[in-house]
Specification:
- Its cofactor is Mg(2+).
- Belongs to the KdsC family.
- GO terms for molecular function: hydrolase activity, acting on ester bonds; metal ion binding; N-acylneuraminate cytidylyltransferase activity.
- InterPro entries: CMP-NeuNAc_synthase (IPR050793), HAD-like_sf (IPR036412), HAD_sf (IPR023214), KdsC_fam (IPR010023).
- Homotetramer.
- The longest helix has 12 residues.
- The protein is globular.
- Helices cover about 40% and strands about 15% of the residues.
- The chain has a 6-stranded parallel beta sheet. A two-stranded antiparallel sheet has the order 2-3.
- Helix 5 links the parallel strand 6 and strand 7.
- It has 8 helices and 8 strands, in the order αβββαβαβαβαβαβαα.
- It is an alpha/beta fold.
- The protein has one domain: Rossmann fold (3-Layer(aba) Sandwich), CATH 3.40.50.1000.
Length: about 180
Amino acid sequence: MAKGITLNIIQKAKKIRLFLMDVDGVLTDGKLYYYENGSIGRAFHIHDGMGIELAHLAGLTTGVISAKDSPSIKNRMEELKIKYIYLGADDKKAIITTIVQHDNFSLEEIAYIGDDLIDIPVFTLVGLSFAVANATKNTKLAADYVTYSEGGNGAVREALELILKAQGLFDNLIATYQK
């Protein structure tokens, strides 16, 4: 059910300056690991981390908006130098509106990637929306683009590469790693 890259997607991707992400089900596979000591664990894919690093090198700003609040999420996002970290967020649209009001972004310059019903209202607000391959059916239908990769398995990297390629930045970024 992946939606292909259309001219419309490319035109939208060229305008993106801020890439926002859900966490559970997008940067992770959505599974929560409950440990005996009461802590909750998550696994983050290294490919997504590299995609975020490439985005930063290209000058994109990144952020996460998650309904969950967890030290493991906060630690990973800080490690990745994510600028906007909103955890325990009930109203994702309100957070994006706040970002637009306080920083120099327009809605059409924002991309968002999600996986579930809570993300659909955000899709209607931003310039470019992505759903991961294993998102819910309604979420996929609402998104501009559906990744081939599943959440927690490189979907963020795939979305970021699409944006960077549309902006003509990807090849130069790759060349810096091949030296």
